[in-house]
Specification:
mainly beta, PLAT/LH2_dom, about 180 residues, globular, five-stranded antiparallel sheet, 2 helices
Length: about 180
Amino acid sequence: YYFPCQRWLAVEEDDGQIARELVPVDEAFVKKDSENDGQSPATLGLEQKAKSTTYTVKVKTGDKKNAGTDANVFIILYGSKDDTGIVSLKASKINKNKFERGKVDEFTVESVDIGDLKKIKIGHDNKGNSTGWFLEWVEIDAPSLGQCLKFPCGRWLDKSEDDGAVERIIFPAELQTVEYIP
């Protein structure tokens, strides 16, 4: 099996991810590439892209006192076929200092086809100075599937607030789901 990557694993490069889910490609792609007879990495990338889905994940921290967190936040997307596994939300495309009070942060998550998105788990490792976090909502847009889903939360992920949980399983709000042409 061949699992080419040809992407950065760095917070300050590319899409900011430090872990990647790789999909196997046909052996012929790797052999042609090494023999240098016209098979470009771009073609290889297209084959991999066809087997994966890119999600834009927006996360809204609530506008409450001490709502922001310095802890390491993660998300898992659960679909009808599979899940993404733990994805660290390291580099926000919008804010250098992520998960601050009243702010929306945006992340890119790539995954193999997990099917229709059914639920998410989001949480943090409770490490750092101010770890408690008030999560307003999560919005996940999958342009290749033509779906944008909203996952309302409106709760603390904090050992000393609410029910003391630092991770939550959230289901999409059907009335806030937007379907469009992929």
